[in-house]
């Protein structure tokens, strides 16, 4: 096992981020505990040379993004004072249709979202016509193309494109209290800390990033999506108290094995032959069981503020689900927006090749254990 010396790289990685960003103010120190814990654990998990290099780059990217964000906060003080009113937030267990629903609703121009490229370079969103030629846009395009060459299934499964809406998960790690890290490689000590930590501070920083990105368009409603918000729903509401919550649901017997399949490539990339997929399965099984339990407890305190969407219904009739959401929150769906949504559905048909089903046993898990752990959830949402 190679020692990649992350434990002694705290200052070095920060210095590299300062060099790239051209700024040296990281803002509040609340990111430091997660950052220090993450780096302190990475040397002992068997990272490959390629995995260690990619992890360093990812960490520096988040540090650089944080520096750019803090600089932007200072430059956009008026924007920082604006409230974020009634954002529409899509959440739910991974592989339950959140991405497709997010992309579909983003066709409505009454909403604004976080485009993929701007998650890595937070700034007031320029006019779309000015994106080509923007060095941040071009850099993000090149990175996405490189990822597509190595892992095309990740791009396909997430529907990732440089100029379309991206999930909040790619911006939240600026605070280094994020499910991003333990979902892509096994770091149990960090994972335990993350699950036990009140990450309201991370969502506050995230909200400031929304204010920065939307500084040129402050009046449009935010459309956000992040499956991990299911786990942190109370913290989401601490920061966005009037949020409209859409939670998608899919039978965990289908969703959890599919989650592990989605994550398998990342784990194998980072640690190669050291990837223990049975441990990954156990982690994801417990993570999402905790997430849906926590979300149910929070929703019980906010009747009418959240709507539950069945994955099967969404697959069968996407537009009926759209109308259900708009009716629930008293939103107006214009004829132009509905046409744009139907055009998007026609251009992005669901492909049966992506519906391959995996079982817990494919990943060293147990169907019986999964049934037992999710018994209450499956009964509540009609999967049992």
Automatic annotation (TrEMBL):
<dbReference type="InterPro" id="IPR027417">
    <property type="entry name" value="P-loop_NTPase"/>
</dbReference>
<protein>
    <recommendedName>
        <fullName>Sulfotransferase</fullName>
    </recommendedName>
</protein>
<dbReference type="Pfam" id="PF13469">
    <property type="entry name" value="Sulfotransfer_3"/>
</dbReference>
<dbReference type="InterPro" id="IPR052736">
    <property type="entry name" value="Stf3_sulfotransferase"/>
</dbReference>
């Amino acid at each position: 096992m190679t020692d990649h010396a992350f434990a002694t790289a705290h200052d070095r990685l920060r210095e590299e981020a300062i060099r790239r960003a051209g700024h040296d103010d990281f803002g509040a120190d609340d990111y430091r505990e997660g950052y220090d814990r993450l780096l302190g654990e990475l040397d002992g998990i068997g990272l490959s040379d390629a995995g260690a290099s990619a992890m360093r780059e990812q960490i520096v990217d988040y540090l650089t993004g944080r520096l750019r964000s803090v600089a932007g906060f200072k430059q956009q003080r008026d924007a920082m004072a604006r409230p974020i009113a009634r954002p529409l937030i899509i959440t739910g267990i991974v592989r339950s249709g959140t991405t497709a629903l997010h992309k579909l609703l983003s066709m409505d121009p009454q909403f604004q979202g976080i485009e993929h490229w701007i998650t890595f370079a937070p700034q007031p969103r320029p006019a779309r016509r000015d994106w080509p030629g923007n060095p941040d846009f071009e850099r993000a395009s090149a990175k996405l193309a490189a990822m597509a060459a190595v892992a095309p299934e990740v791009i396909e499964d997430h529907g990732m494109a440089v100029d379309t809406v991206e999930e909040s998960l790619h911006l939240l790690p600026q605070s280094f209290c994020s499910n991003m890290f333990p979902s892509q490689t096994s770091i149990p000590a960090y994972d335990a800390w993350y699950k036990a930590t009140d990450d309201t501070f991370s969502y506050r920083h995230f909200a400031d990033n929304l204010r920065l990105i939307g500084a040129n368009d402050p009046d449009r409603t935010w459309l956000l999506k992040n499956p991990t918000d299911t786990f942190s729903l109370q913290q989401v509401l601490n920061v966005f108290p009037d949020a409209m919550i859409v939670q998608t649901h899919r039978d965990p017997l289908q969703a959890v094995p599919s989650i592990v399949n989605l994550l398998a490539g990342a784990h194998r990339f980072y640690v190669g032959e050291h990837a223990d997929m049975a441990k990954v399965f156990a982690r994801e099984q417990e993570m999402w069981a905790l997430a849906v339990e926590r979300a149910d407890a929070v929703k019980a305190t906010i009747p009418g503020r959240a709507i539950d969407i069945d994955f099967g219904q969404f697959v069968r009739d996407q537009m009926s689900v759209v109308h259900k959401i708009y009716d629930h929150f008293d939103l107006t769906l214009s004829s132009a927006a509905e046409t744009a949504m139907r055009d998007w559905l026609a251009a992005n048909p669901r492909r049966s090749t992506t519906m391959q089903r995996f079982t817990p046993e494919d990943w060293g898990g147990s169907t019986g254990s999964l049934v037992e752990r999710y018994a209450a959830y499956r009964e509540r949402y009609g999967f049992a």
